[in-house]
């Protein structure tokens, strides 16, 4: 791994700034600053530490999310970003209520549960019903129509940790649409094994979606230890019903305002479409949103500032800190609508924690192989390989997909991400400063190249 001593880096950068053209300063200086960021960057940590300490959880549409937007806008202004603004939109707001689960029979004991976003509610006194187990989503799909009338469905899965996070796509349907499917078969409530990989007694929340025409039912996630305890009860009951008392009292509070925080590092050539760096500023309410996604916002902001420190880039770097991503990508969709007629050259999103980047993929490896190869070679010194897949981008950069623009995925190591995802454990102490700096270094290298790339990013072919 190539490193540059700090004093030498500062000396060489200042000399370059005095002697070279702005374009060459930006290109070479950003690369030097990427090397330096690997060891010294504090901007990303400053952002995530401040956001989680001064604001904390930022549930979409709430006063806390609004404070998070204002905090981020002030931080961006203070660190020299231009055109800092909040672009508002509205959404229906869901808030949490009481959450209790208790096995009534045959093995009475409490279970730790958290309501899923957009869950329906039980009466205040709760409901008591037999629980029907489904050890996979496929088993629930095969259940006959009406077979769950008056019963609570339990949905399990076999998610395992993976570097690329692929276990989430495998297990996710249990949360994403499992409660709706159970409701369509008559269930009065659903409990799932949390979509996660840890064995802390922490439930993983997250959104669920009910199909058109299906009334929302109470839906909650059990911590993994509690879910597996419940599964053992099914086995030991030997045909006797397992009965659960469930209290979940979330509510919809009506329409409220959220918003996107948008800011620029202004480029020298306003005729060039900007590049877009995205994250989301909201979080679930159980933890403080450090890994998901305060760190992501810190990473993109730090990288943009590092590139600006090397000299004004050729094209504008636009930062999007999207609101209300967790509850349905409302911010990303609002941004795409508001800027539909404003071309984007290339987009990247950081929304998978803060552990080291191990892979780079683009959607232009064939259309613009020279640029893809240049990026791959530039980040190899940080331990990043060039993947063979086609980048599809994060949730909030739908505008790039709509426009068939360039997209880059900088894949972070997801091995421990789903230990923390949507749990009370998503707190600042889980962010590894060294791995966070590696993210900033890789992003600075990639953004520095793209922000100074003339012409098309993704060639049309």
Structural shape: elongated
Structural class by SSE content: alpha/beta
Low-confidence stretches: 1-25
Number of domains: 2
CATH topology of the largest domain: Aminopeptidase
CATH class of the largest domain: Alpha Beta
Spell out the CATH superfamily of the largest domain: Zn peptidases
What's the total count of β strands? 16
CATH architecture assignment name of the largest domain: 3-Layer(aba) Sandwich
What is the tally of helical segments? Answer: 15
Mean pLDDT figure: 93
Strand content: 15-25%
Strand line-up across the major sheet: 1-10-12-11-13-16-14-15
Q: Tell me the span between the first and last alpha carbons.
A: 36 Å
| Cα-based radius of gyration, to the nearest Å | 24 Å
**Percent range for helical residues?**
25-40%
Largest sheet: 8 strands, mixed
Describe the structure concisely for a colleague.
This protein has 461 residues and is an alpha/beta fold. 36% of the residues lie in helices and 22% in strands. It has 2 domains: 6-93 and 254-451, Zn peptidases (Aminopeptidase, 3-Layer(aba) Sandwich), CATH 3.40.630; 97-249, Glucose Oxidase, domain 1, CATH 3.50.30.
Please describe what this structure looks like.
The structure is a single chain. The protein is α/β, with parallel strands linked by helices and 461 residues long. The protein folds into two domains: 6-93 and 254-451, Zn peptidases (Aminopeptidase); 97-249, 3-Layer(bba) Sandwich (Glucose Oxidase, domain 1). The chain has helices spanning 6-19, 22-40, 43-54, 63-78, 137-142, 166-171, 173-176, 178-184, 224-237, 290-309, 330-338, 369-379, 398-402, 417-420, 433-451; strands spanning 82-95, 99-105, 109-111, 113-115, 127-134, 152-155, 189-193, 219-222, 243-248, 251-265, 275-280, 317-322, 346-349, 357-362, 385-386, 406-412. The strands form two sheets. Strands 1-10-12-11-13-16-14-15 form an eight-stranded mixed β-sheet, sandwiched between helices. Helix 2 packs antiparallel against helix 15, helix 3 (43-54) packs antiparallel against helix 10 (290-309) and helix 10 crosses helix 15 (433-451). The two termini are 36 Å apart. Residues 1-25 have low confidence and may be disordered.
């Amino acid at each position: 791994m190539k490193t540059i001593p700090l004093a030498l880096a500062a000396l060489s950068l200042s000399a370059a700034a005095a002697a070279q053209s702005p374009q060459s300063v930006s290109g070479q200086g950003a690369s030097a600053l990427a090397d330096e960021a690997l060891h010294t960057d504090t901007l990303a940590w400053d952002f995530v530490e401040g956001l989680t300490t001064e604001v904390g959880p930022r549930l979409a549409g709430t006063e806390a999310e609004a404070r998070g937007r204002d905090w981020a806008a002030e931080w961006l202004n203070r660190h020299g970003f231009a055109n800092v603004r909040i672009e508002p939109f509205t959404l229906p707001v869901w808030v949490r209520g009481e959450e209790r689960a208790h096995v009534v029979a045959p093995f009475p004991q409490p279970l730790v549960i958290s309501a899923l976003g957009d869950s329906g509610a039980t009466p205040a006194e709760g409901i008591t019903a037999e629980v029907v187990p489904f050890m996979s989503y496929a088993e629930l799909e095969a259940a006959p129509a009406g077979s769950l009338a008056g019963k609570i469905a339990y949905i399990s899965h076999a998610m395992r940790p993976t570097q690329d996070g692929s276990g989430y796509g495998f297990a996710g349907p249990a949360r994403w649409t499992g409660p709706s499917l159970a409701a369509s078969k008559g269930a009065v409530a659903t409990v799932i094994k949390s979509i996660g990989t840890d064995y802390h007694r922490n439930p993983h929340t997250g959104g669920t979606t009910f199909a058109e025409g299906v009334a929302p039912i109470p839906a909650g996630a059990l911590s993994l230890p509690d879910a597996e305890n419940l599964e053992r009860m099914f086995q030991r009951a030997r045909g006797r019903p397992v009965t659960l008392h469930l209290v979940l009292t979330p509510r919809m509070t009506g329409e409220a305002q959220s918003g996107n925080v948008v800011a620029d590092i202004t480029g020298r050539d306003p005729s060039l479409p900007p590049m877009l760096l995205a994250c989301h500023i909201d979080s679930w309410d159980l933890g403080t949103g450090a890994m998901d996604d305060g760190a992501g916002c810190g990473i993109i902001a730090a990288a943009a500032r590092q590139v600006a420190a090397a000299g004004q880039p050729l094209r504008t770097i636009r930062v999007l800190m999207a609101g209300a991503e967790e509850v349905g990508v409302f911010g990303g969709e609002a941004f795409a609508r508001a800027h539909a007629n404003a071309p984007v050259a290339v987009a990247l999103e950081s929304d998978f924690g803060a552990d080291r980047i191990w892979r780079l993929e683009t959607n232009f490896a064939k259309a613009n192989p020279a640029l893809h190869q240049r990026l791959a070679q530039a980040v190899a010194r940080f331990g990043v390989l060039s993947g063979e897949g086609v980048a599809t981008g994060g949730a909030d950069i739908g505008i790039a997909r709509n426009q068939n623009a360039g997209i880059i995925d900088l894949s972070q190591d997801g091995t421990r991400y789903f230990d923390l995802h949507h749990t009370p454990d998503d707190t600042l102490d889980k962010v590894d400063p060294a791995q966070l700096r590696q993210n900033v270094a890789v992003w600075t290298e990639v953004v520095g190249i793209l922000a100074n790339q003339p012409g098309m990013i993704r060639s049309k072919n």
